[in-house]
Amino acid sequence: MPSLSAAGGWAAVAAIPLAAVLGAVLRRATFARLALRMRPHYLLGYGALAIAVAHVVTAGRSMGSADATGIWIGSFALLVLILQAFVGASLQAPGAYRAVLRRWHAVAFWSALALALAHAALDAPYLAGMLADMAAVRAG
Known about the structure:
The protein is mostly helical. The chain is built from 6 helices and no strands.
């Protein structure tokens, strides 16, 4: 059974693309003003950031056996999520700059997702074990 920290990490990884899909769907919907209909996207996005921060806080005890490169990658993923939250908050205000910010918001999404998955591949014990088993089967 995964620890609370691991469960939080996987929840954050799952929330990132879920928030993106929800944002894309709600942005194209027409049932209410943009700011109102995007609220679930905002909540899920800020929730993903909060869960990622909680993952960092609760993972402190188990970092002794973690891959240092994976920890750095995870740190960059958290930094990108923080930057994405700032860009997303800026998108809530009207202005001509919104098209550029949407592109940066999308770049931040793909970057955060890729970094989070790389972090998980390097530092998730059961995922790393599974990958090692698959490599052994292929080699053997």
